[in-house]
Amino acid sequence: MTLLRRGAPLFVQALGLVIITLVAAQLISIAVIFNLPPPPPEFYRSSEIARAIKTGQSVPSRDGRALVVRHHGSVRAIGPDNPRRAEFKAEMSRLLDVPVNRIEIQIDNGPRFFVRRQPVTPPKTDPAPPPNRAREPFAREPGGKPQGKDEQLMFGDFKLGVRQSDGHWLIVEPKPTFFRFDSWQQRVLLILFLSVAAVTPLAWLFARRLAQPITAFADAAERLGKDPRTPPLAMSGSSEVLAAATAFNMMQERLRRYVEDRTAMVGAIAHDLRTPLTRLKFRIEAAPDDVRPKLAADIDQMEAMIAATLGFVRDTSRPAERTKLELSSLLESVMDEAAETGGDTTVDRSEKVVIEGDPVALKRLVANLVENALKYGGTARGRVYAEGHMAIIEIEDNGPGVPPAELERVFEPFYRGEPSRNRETGGIGLGLAVVRSLARAHGGDVTLHNRTGGGLRACVFLPA
């Protein structure tokens, strides 16, 4: 267990898991083998074999599989006859009344044969008859079946062949089986199942413990994608995990400082530009009358861009307050506010989709999309639905759409596809940049698509 303690290298923990499971499986196997009785072997009586040869039909066996007879083939003995085989062949010669040289035996006592702790006791025969009685050819067992006094037993798999007068062989053997498990095979399977059942919970606990840091990294990366100010990753686990967690937390801190520094710099620049713009306003009073309106319009446009930039910086640097909210209700409230100011808005029947997000940020996201739809398309139609693990907000308009080459560029800050740069028709160019920034801060994204019948469709994807 010390190999799997927290703080140990991941390699050592994995190696310890393998060693412990293997040792546990072997101990279980040894315990089962030494505590279960040995399986009884299959054995066949010479009288059963002789009966099968004489009848030419299958004969059931009391202690093994049924004996079957084949009328084609041959039997070749492996090696010279030992005394046991010679004795069995002599017994079969007597029972079948055929010469012993016409009988061959092929024995296969491979994996089916087991040596018992106590030898198998063959069926008892009756004592020799008294001198004044004729010798009986068969004695009777307690069950009433006749049994030869010198009856032999055959163990395991075998083939016994008797060569006929025409040269063909009559072969008897235990019935072959394809999907049958012998007792020793059943024992091996039992050991396997017991080992798996005993080791699986232990392996599951250790494997889950090893996988927890990977899951923690995935969750931390997901949180970092939504909010760079998320709490750092907890420092626990093996030495490799501790090193990776330290590097991850340092990366998160650098990203947070980088984003905050750039955001603060942009905000400071936008704020400081207000002072020279104010001086310019006073100085254009001395400008000629034909030039003054144009200068005033340029200064107003610059002030509007600075105000939009400061608002963008303020929204992105504001700490997010996440709570559960229902998106269709949020969409309806934004559409109602736009309708009160004269906008042509419609909300299609939407699903009730609840997500966890920043209500203020998501309301501005939807408001920007509705404002763009009304400004460029004259109408705004929206709906909310769920697809997989994502909640989708769609805003459509009936405008001219966007050239395919500019579907991604319109999300760049201060980019406008409208070439006149007129605020009355084009705007500042931060609306869609804010929408994408807020969507990605929630772990989602936004895409634009030109509709087949004309107009533009904005799709916002948010994790449900």
Which class of one domain in CATH terms?
Alpha Beta
Identify low-pLDDT runs.
110-149, 419-425
* Percentage of β-strand residues: 15-25%
Strand order of the largest sheet: 10-12-13-15-14
The proportion of residues forming helix, as a percent range, comes to 40-55%
Structure characterization notes:
The chain contains ten helices and 15 strands. α1 (10-35) runs antiparallel to α4, α6 (274-283) packs antiparallel against α7 and α9 packs antiparallel against α10 (431-441). The protein has helices at residues 10-35, 46-55, 83-96, 183-226, 239-272, 274-283, 292-317, 327-340, 359-377, 431-441, and strands spanning 43-45, 67-70, 103-108, 139-140, 146-147, 153-155, 157-163, 169-174, 323-326, 344-347, 354-357, 379-387, 390-396, 445-450, 456-463. The strands form five sheets. Strands 10-12-13-15-14 form a five-stranded mixed β-sheet. A four-stranded antiparallel β-sheet has the order 2-8-7-3, covered by helices on one side. Helix content is 45%, strand content 16%. Mean pLDDT is 76; it is low at 110-149 and 419-425. β14 (445-450) and β15 (456-463) form a beta hairpin. It is elongated. By secondary structure, the protein is α+β, with helices and mostly antiparallel strands. Among the domains are: 43-181, no CATH class; 320-463, Histidine kinase-like ATPase, C-terminal domain (Heat Shock Protein 90), CATH 3.30.565.10.
